[in-house]
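Table S2 (text version). Query chain:
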Amino acid sequence: MGSVDGRAVLAVDDLVYDVEQASDGALPSSPRRAVAEHAALHELSARLTAGSAGERSPEPLGPTATVLLGPPVPWPRQVFGIGLNYRLHAAESGSELPSVPLVFTKFPGYLAGPTADIPVAAPTTDYEAELVVVIGTQCKDVADGDAWDVVAGLTVGQDVSDRDLQYATKPAQFNLGKSHDGYGPVGPFVVSPDLVPDRNALQVRCEVNGDVRQSDSTANMIFAVSELVGYLSSILTLHPGDLIFTGTPAGVGRTTGQYLRAGDAVTTTIDGVGTLSNRCV
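Corresponding structure-token output:
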């Protein structure tokens, strides 16, 4: 599931369909509400699959490559970020491994689509490729073993960061440093966990101008997806459409000195989930 002009859409056989229209109004147009309808979205996808749509096939919005996608959940109720969740990233940062997830909040207004430009708002604008978890069920106090049951899907995210602003004070200002307008490309779609090759071991990669800057597997996260969902839900209620940026691998610009500049092309890929292609301006 994704979004076009703030409306929920579904990609099937390289075509994009408006969810509300394709379901004859049975499913909502709001991405935040639609993402909670796991089973119904699966059923709609099956009906739209080539050869099984029946006599009355809905018209697609167009091929996937020609449709301008926004963030899959444009206005989530809550957005969480996880810091230092890869061992090598903690090491390159000179930080001790956290004993519990290092959590910060992010302001939803910073989210952008999968092909949106990244504004270089500061000379220390940094890239951070991340797996993003999308909550699909309102939940509280979820056991680790049940955590995947409340996950609607996975998507790709860039937690772009203004390092000067982030570390302007002690303690650091993670919230503001990561919330410039346009600093959060995400997408292209929310992919159901049962459609990825191994939901616990996904390769995350970031390239800048074709140069691989980050590459690691989510199997090497300190706190797995199930642990993050369990930890957060033990403190507060999670809602459909909430996003969890699960942390970034080693290789960020803050440690290499290679910050983003206008004209750079940033490509962020998670195998089986999707790719973001963003130009810096």
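Notes on Table S2: The first helix runs from residue 19 to 22. The chain has a mean pLDDT of 94.
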